[in-house]
Specification:
This protein has a single domain (about 30-105), classed as Roll (Ubiquitin-like (UB roll)), CATH 3.10.20.90. It is about 30% helix and about 30% strand. It has two helices and five strands. A five-stranded mixed beta sheet has the order 2-1-5-3-4, covered by helices on one side. This is Ubiquitin-like domain-containing protein.
């Protein structure tokens, strides 16, 4: 094989684009979370259904100055467990708006 005919930069770009497309496909479509924050505030954020509950908690902790270690998220009265994807939680589906209760406990 003559390496002079191989366009390495083009190959890298194709591989990067393919990897990015796979990552987006794995994360899926978006869901909108309508979050009741501690203190009575409300927030609305959209996430890919493939992200984890822990990711959402980290995002909320950073955006709303909440303590990650104490933050609990509930939907339909059920605890949303950190390692699960949003798609694994009851009532969460692409394109839906889901009520989520955030508490520090």
């Amino acid at each position: 094989m003559d390496l002079s005919t191989v366009d390495l930069e083009s190959s890298r770009q194709k591989a990067a684009a393919s990897k990015e497309a796979e990552a987006k496909e794995e994360q899926g479509e978006e869901v909108t979370l309508c979050i009741n924050l501690p203190g009575g505030q409300k927030a609305v954020h959209s996430f890919k259904v493939g992200v984890t509950v822990a990711y959402v908690k980290a995002f909320l902790a950073e955006q709303h100055s909440l303590e990650f270690a104490k933050l609990r998220l509930l939907t339909g009265g059920r605890l949303m467990i950190d390692p699960l994807s949003l798609s694994d939680c009851p009532g969460v589906a692409p394109g839906k708006e889901v009520e989520v209760e955030a508490s520090l406990g």
